[in-house]
Design brief:
alpha+beta, binds zinc ion, single chain, five-stranded mixed beta sheet
């Protein structure tokens, strides 16, 4: 059987919110089978749980925010991406403020945290949402067009194309294809950092965003070049970060997808619309488990052996 996974033990990290600039502590704890991933605001007089789901996403400006009533957690996508990449199904995320810490701006620190706590196989079959028919969302026209699509695929594959016209980006890859069955999430994707432009920072700060952002947790560019002294971590770090974000955004569905995702200039908003579109078409998906590991897509079956 291909099993659900949680952590062996709890693990903690302290950091700062990218947008809020607030100090925050997160504690990742094991959770029983079929719990899914549940954020718990432990700083409130009574703790409030926010289970992840496509419909819990309430704001997608610059980051993905989930909420229950008035209680929010911002910037969940990098932690969610690490959970997707390592196949963690069940987890409690206790958090002491309303934004997940940005740490180094990638998912690498979350991968390290999850791996150092250790992964535990649980006595329940891993449940996938299998896409049975193509689903697409599209916005804008001409030069402004953007789209995202899910198609049937026995595994999980993501293709992303960006279209940034900037001297520092033009020379790097503008498209990337990542397949869980042949690639390594921790090596190929997890280290890609978020990025921003100095000219946008003032505007973002005026809107109360990016208050915690800087060269320690983002690739920062002026009109001509990357300002970080160490340069890029991957030649195509920009588009790889878009794959990292998409994996996090799509994992907010609550279960791993069996699908091929492709996108052109998509972002948090369109990724969430894509999930909502999928859920609207009940005939376009079903939920499957694998009694026999050998019948499971290679990437997922191999995760168990990788540790
Ligand atoms: Zn991101």
């Amino acid at each position: 059987m291909l099993n659900q996974r949680t952590l062996k033990t709890l693990t903690r990290a302290v950091g700062m919110g990218l947008h809020s600039g607030q100090r925050v502590e997160i504690t990742l704890r094991p959770a029983p089978p079929d719990t899914g991933i549940v954020f718990r605001r432990v700083d409130l007089p009574e703790p409030v749980d926010i289970p992840v789901s496509a419909l819990a996403v309430t704001d997608t400006r610059m980051a993905s925010t989930i909420s229950t009533g008035n209680v929010k957690v911002h910037t969940v996508e990098h932690l969610m991406s690490a959970c997707a990449g390592l196949g963690v199904d069940n987890l409690y995320v206790d958090i002491t403020a309303e934004e997940v810490p940005i740490l180094d701006g990638s998912a690498a620190s979350f991968v390290f945290l999850l791996q150092s706590a250790g992964i535990e196989l649980q006595d329940a079959p891993k449940r996938f949402v299998r896409v049975l028919a193509p689903v697409e969302v599209r916005q804008g026209e001409g030069d402004n067009v953007k789209w995202a699509r899910l198609e049937p695929y026995h595994g999980y594959r993501l293709g992303f194309e960006i279209d940034f016209s900037h001297p520092a980006v033009d020379s790097t890859g503008q498209s990337v294809l990542f397949d869980m069955s042949t690639g390594s999430y921790s090596k190929d994707i997890a280290r890609a950092r978020t990025f921003g432009f100095t000219k946008d920072v003032e505007m973002m700060r005026a809107n109360g965003l990016a208050l915690g952002g800087g060269l320690d947790n983002a690739i920062v560019m002026d009109d001509y070049k990357v300002l970080n002294a160490g340069g890029l971590r991957y030649d195509d770090e920009f588009v790889k970060h878009k794959i990292l974000d998409a994996m996090g955004d799509l994992y907010l569905l609550g279960k791993p997808l069996l699908a091929s995702y492709s996108a052109f200039r998509s972002g948090h908003a369109l990724n969430n619309l894509l999930l909502r579109e999928l859920l609207k078409h009940r005939a376009a998906w079903d939920v499957v488990t694998f009694d026999d590991d050998k019948l499971a897509p290679a990437g997922f079956a191999q995760l168990a052996r990788a540790w």
